[in-house]
Write a structure and sequence with these properties.
Blueprint: H1 10-17, E1 31-32, E2 54-56, H2 59-67, E3 73-75, H3 79-86, E4 101-104, E5 114-115, H4 118-128, E6 133-136, H5 139-142, H6 145-153, E7 157-159, H7 175-183, E8 188-191, H8 196-203, E9 207-210, E10 216-217, H9 226-233, H10 244-255, H11 263-269
Parallel strand pairs: 1-2, 2-3, 4-6, 4-8, 6-7, 8-9
Antiparallel strand pairs: 5-10
Helix pairs in contact: 1-3, 8-10
Length: 276
């Protein structure tokens, strides 16, 4: 099982949905897409062992992978969708109790830091958002005080949901649980790039926006086309006020709602069946 499958506790969520141990999820024989992706589900230089199964959230990455000559794809729906099913929103927290915006900064990773105009972004957020702002930083930025203090000094509440882990170490299996809980407190979700968090926010019932300095990341691979390609293919997902009907339709497709499966089918697909 590739350690990427554990990122954000996604394998743990799927194991729980399938009725198995979610503390120590069973081996998933292949590669699981761990974030929204405008390519075939993974970064352009990801290495796969021969014959590996590739489990994507939706059908579009499968089609793009086939165009590249790759095979063995199965579309299964994003683990976040299964989490939504298992963690229904409490009736005692009505929609009108939500307030403010949960704002996600485009983030780097262990091998690349972001660069951009944080002050200018803060000014634009203040001009745009009418309610309180909670600012979400990925741990790679949260642990850089020079970035975190920009947003703390601006008066924003700053949060981080934990580490995705590496080589099975340091994964916070409740990462997506904490993100979902925070999304459900807010009316809006926003970010400076179209990203996984925007789709999660819409799926969790938030209004959405994508605006501001998109920033740059050291070593960013332009092979998939970057922001220009996103603007061409997903224009309905960009702006300070989105057409929510269109955004929700796109979200359902990108997260893979039509490809979700019952627990029995998931156990069969992943070879998680009980041995007799």
């Amino acid at each position: 099982m590739h350690h990427h499958n554990h990122y954000y506790g996604q394998a743990h969520i799927l194991a729980r949905y399938a009725g198995l141990d979610d503390e120590y999820p069973p081996r998933l024989r292949g590669y699981l897409q761990h974030g929204w992706n405008i390519g075939d589900g993974w970064n352009p230089v990801h290495e796969f062992y021969d014959g590996a199964f590739r489990f994507t959230w939706s059908d579009a990455p499968r089609r793009r992978g086939h165009a590249l000559g790759r095979r063995n794809y199965h579309s299964i729906g994003a683990p976040f969708l299964y989490l939504l099913d298992m963690e229904p929103e409490p009736v005692v927290v009505p929609q009108d109790k939500r307030e403010g915006t949960l704002w996600f900064l485009f983030h780097g990773w262990e091998g690349g830091k972001i660069r951009g105009d944080h002050k200018g972004l803060i000014d634009e957020i203040r001009e745009t958002e009418t309610g309180p702002v909670t600012f979400s930083l990925y741990y790679t930025e949260y642990e850089r005080p020079e970035i975190r203090r920009f947003y703390e000094d601006a008066g924003f509440r700053v949060v981080s949901f934990g580490r995705r882990g590496f080589s099975y170490e340091g994964t916070d299996p409740k990462f997506l649980y904490k993100q979902l809980a925070e999304l459900r407190k807010h009316k809006r979700v926003a970010a400076n790039r179209l990203s996984t968090a925007i789709f999660y926010g819409i799926a969790a019932g938030c209004d959405a926006a994508v605006y501001g300095d998109p920033m740059a990341m050291e070593g960013e691979n332009p092979l998939f086309g970057g922001d220009n390609r996103i603007a061409r293919l997903w224009p309905e997902m960009l702006g300070k006020e989105l057409d929510l009907e269109a955004a929700r339709a796109t979200t359902d497709l990108e997260l893979g709602v039509p490809w979700m499966m019952p627990p029995q089918e998931m156990r069969m697909l992943f070879d998680w069946r009980e041995r007799v």
